[in-house]
Amino acid sequence: DEALPYLLFAYRDAPQESLGYSPNELVFGKDVRGPLDLVKAKWEGVDTEQCPKRASEYLEKLQSTLEKVRKVAGENLEEAQERQKRHHDAKARPRLFQVGDKVLLLKADHVTKLEVAWEGPFEVIQSLLFDNYLIKRVGTKEKSIAVHVERLKPFNGRAEIESAG
């Protein structure tokens, strides 16, 4: 608890990869100088940033800086999103299921890495728009649910293997 404010200061002062700016720069229009920055400036004899003589000058400069920073951050974010999409698409494989196919569902709330992340089997009831499927748990009267294809994988159960032999 005692270290939390220092940790938050460090986090807010670090540039975010996707934006190219720190949260402090986006909110305040400049880097916030921490204690070490102030001590270093004093030790080196560097004059700290001069405040403008009039409040109106300060506000104009701050508004201009914030507009520039937010514009560049938005551009950086778009580039990062495109880069992340290319990375995702390079690894993604199209998955198509037919009505009647047996599938497993990725749990949304598995707690540990050792816990089984897939549950099922489910049966595909209907293909919906935007890569979504309506599925229902096999052998139960549970309601059917709509899920995105990325949460599904084909079910290749033991029962199917045993009945084939």
Task: Write a brief caption for the model.
The protein has helices at 4-13, 23-28, 35-44, 55-91, 158-164, and strands at 102-106, 118-127, 132-137, 145-148, 152-154.
Poorly predicted runs of 5 or more residues: 159-165
> Helix proportion of residues, in percent?
40-55%
User: What structural category characterises the helix and strand content?
Assistant: alpha+beta
Which value, in Å, is the CA radius of gyration?
27 Å
Number of strands: 5
Biggest pleated sheet: 5 strands, antiparallel
- Shape type: elongated
Percent of sequence in beta strands? 15-25%
Write a structural description.
The chain has 165 residues and is an alpha+beta fold. It is 42% helix and 17% strand. The protein contains five helices and five strands, in the order ααααβββββα. It has helices at residues 4-13, 23-28, 35-44, 55-91, 158-164, and strands spanning 102-106, 118-127, 132-137, 145-148, 152-154. The chain has a five-stranded antiparallel sheet with strand order 4-3-2-1-5, with no helix packed on it. The radius of gyration is 27 Å and the shape is elongated. It starts with a helix and ends with a helix. The relative contact order is 0.09.
